[in-house]
Design goal:
The protein has 89 residues and is mostly helical. The chain is built from three helices and no strands.
């Protein structure tokens, strides 16, 4: 895909994966919540359900973008190769 780097989107999605694992782990894991309460007595868990949903949504968008980059790059190459063959003959 021209103008969009697959490397950038891959690293962005990898970062979103780490963020999603942190958010879901902090929200759903009782062990992580107990460790947080031990380190910060009297504090509330800083993760809410909207944080979890946003991180899952970002992961899904990243996967769709990676798929689009791969598919459209292949189609782009096929299309240009077909044009080159027609212009040569």
């Amino acid at each position: 895909m021209i103008g969009l780097s697959l490397d950038y989107i891959s690293f962005m999605t990898l970062g979103q994966l780490a963020y999603m694992l942190y958010m879901t782990g902090m929200y759903f894991s009782k062990i992580a919540q107990l460790q947080y309460f031990a380190a910060h007595p009297g504090a509330a868990i800083p993760v809410e359900i909207n944080d979890v949903l946003v991180s899952v949504h970002n992961m899904c968008i990243g996967i769709v973008l990676i798929y689009q980059c791969i598919v459209y790059e292949v189609r782009h190459r096929v299309w240009f190769n077909a044009l080159e063959r027609k212009s040569i003959t």
